[in-house]
Structures are given as structure tokens and as C-alpha cells.
Write a structure and sequence with these properties.
Elements lengths: L4 H26 L3 E7 L1 H4 L9 E7 L5 H14 L11 E7 H5 L7 E6 L3 E6 L3 H12 L1 E4 L12 H19 L9 H20 L5 H10 L7 H9 L9 H14 L10
Parallel strand pairs: 2-3
Antiparallel strand pairs: 1-2, 1-6, 3-4, 4-5
Helix pairs in contact: 1-3, 5-6, 7-8, 7-9, 7-10, 8-9
């Protein structure tokens, strides 16, 4: 399998070999139900940080995976943890999505198997961020196996992106103000700050930028001047002096929610 040059530039030959082996293992686990495998996120847009970024993958299927298939995929991941010294499996975030869901407009009401580095495997409903993933896949996605991704994914308009960003803020970020334990992790604080920058940038300009590009946008004008120290710290993570920014991060999330008219209460301590 030929590996896209973007993957080699970002993570070296080891990452390319890991992804090639992963595709082979998923093909063995799913057989003909596996329709395609695609890289999205920072690895496809050129914003990949070998120290901190997840490896975002979408595996398309002909039908939803069942319990037996999910267990086989779980076993594949357990085997991945022993592949080489780079521990790429610890950074792998993969979702198994029916190809028809990517070809359809909006967000289909289905639950899919997802695997997250911190949360493990779970079956959950697609949320508003699925629209954002579709846009990134269509414009930047890297095809590892199957038909070209641009032919698989339905177009996403700027209006749909704005609706998706607001929905993601409401459904994912707002509830975390009530139970903010995740923000004890410095890495998650930086991730949240950069995500807020990207959300604010998209809502202001209609452009879906990478997180580093959105942070640069946030630093260019006076609109977010009060948050510049926090944003600089998030850009620098994990380098430099990294004081705890939990309270400032939660304040920045509340600021972002206020900007889109989403009500909230004060976060728990």
C-alpha cells in the first residue's frame, strides 16, 4: 500500500508502517464489510504535532458493525499496543462509520463504534462534530484503502459548519462546565483553548482552519486580546513553562458560549 507523503513528513516511516498494518488488520477483522480507511484531522491538514496530536482515522463500512465485529476490532487494538516502540496505538482515534452516513447530508441518527485514546471503545450516537469531520475529510482526507474519500463524502456548506460548531459547543463543551474534572489535565486545557479559537474563528469568518491557524487568527486583533496569554500558553504546550490554566480555560469556554448565545451556569470547583 502506498502511503501518502503527508503521513511520512508528519510521523516518519514508522507511522506509515503502523497505519498500513492497521488497515490490514481491520480488513482481516471485518472482511468485505470494510469499505475504506481514511486519515483526517491534523495528520491530513499539516498541523500534526508528533508529541501531542492524535492520529484521527475514519474506517467506512457497508453496514454498522455488530457486537461480534466490535469485539474483533477491540482485539485488533489490543494487539496494536505491542507493535513497535513508537506507541502509535496509544494515540489512535478511530471511528467505524457506514459509508452511506458520509454520503448523506447532515448527521444521521445512528450509533457507531468509536475508539478514543483516553476513553477506549464505545458505541455512541453521531454528534454535530460529524459535520466538521466530513468537511475535513472531503477537503483534506487521505485515502489509505478504498475509493477516494472526496467521492465518498457529501459537500458541507459554511452554514452547515456554523450550525455544527454551535451544536458541538452546546452538546459537548457546555456539559463539561458542570463536571470539569477533565480540565485537571494540562494537555486537555490546551486542547480546549485551541478548539475555542477554531470555533470563534469559524463563526466570525466562515473558514474552518486548523487549530494552530485559528490560534494565530485569534492573536492578530484586539477582539481576543484579554485571552492572548492563555492562547500563547496553549500554542506552546507541552514546551516552555506550563502553569495550570484550568480556571482561565473554563472562563474562555464560558466566553465562547456567551458569544454564540448559549446560556450556562458557573462551573463546579
Amino acid at each position: 500500500m502506498d502511503i501518502d507523503a503527508r503521513i511520512i513528513r508528519a510521523g516518519g516511516p514508522g507511522l506509515g508502517s503502523f497505519l498500513g498494518r492497521a488497515v490490514s488488520s481491520w480488513r482481516s477483522a471485518l472482511g468485505r464489510n470494510l469499505a475504506g480507511v481514511y486519515v483526517q484531522g491534523s495528520l491530513s491538514t499539516g498541523a500534526f504535532n508528533p508529541r501531542t496530536s492524535d492520529i484521527d482515522v475514519v474506517a467506512t463500512t457497508r453496514t454498522l458493525t455488530d457486537t461480534a465485529a466490535n469485539e474483533r476490532l477491540h482485539e485488533v487494538h489490543r494487539e496494536m499496543l505491542g507493535w513497535g516502540d513508537d506507541r502509535w496505538a496509544d494515540r489512535l482515534e478511530v471511528s467505524f462509520v457506514p459509508a452511506r452516513a458520509l454520503a448523506a447530508p447532515g448527521v444521521p441518527r445512528i450509533a457507531i463504534l468509536e475508539m478514543h485514546p483516553d476513553e477506549g471503545f464505545k458505541v455512541q450516537r453521531l454528534g454535530p462534530d460529524f459535520v466538521i469531520q466530513k468537511r475535513i475529510l472531503r477537503e483534506h482526507g487521505i485515502t489509505l484503502f478504498g475509493p477516494r474519500i472526496a467521492k465518498t463524502v457529501a459537500p458541507v456548506t459554511s452554514g452547515e459548519l456554523r450550525v455544527a460548531v454551535v451544536g458541538n459547543l452546546r452538546e459537548w463543551w457546555l456539559p463539561q462546565l458542570e463536571y470539569p474534572g477533565q480540565f485537571l489535565k494540562r494537555g486537555y486545557q490546551a486542547y480546549a483553548v485551541l478548539t475555542m479559537c477554531r470555533s470563534l474563528c469559524l463563526l466570525a469568518t466562515g473558514e474552518l482552519l486548523t487549530k494552530p491557524e485559528a490560534a494565530a487568527w485569534a492573536l492578530r486583533g484586539p477582539y481576543l486580546e484579554a485571552w492572548h496569554p492563555l492562547i500563547h500558553s496553549a500554542i506552546a504546550y507541552p514546551g516552555g513553562v506550563q502553569p495550570d490554566q484550568r480556571l482561565a480555560t473554563l472562563d474562555f469556554i464560558r466566553f465562547t458560549l456567551d458569544n454564540v448565545g448559549i446560556g450556562h451556569s458557573a462551573p463546579s470547583s
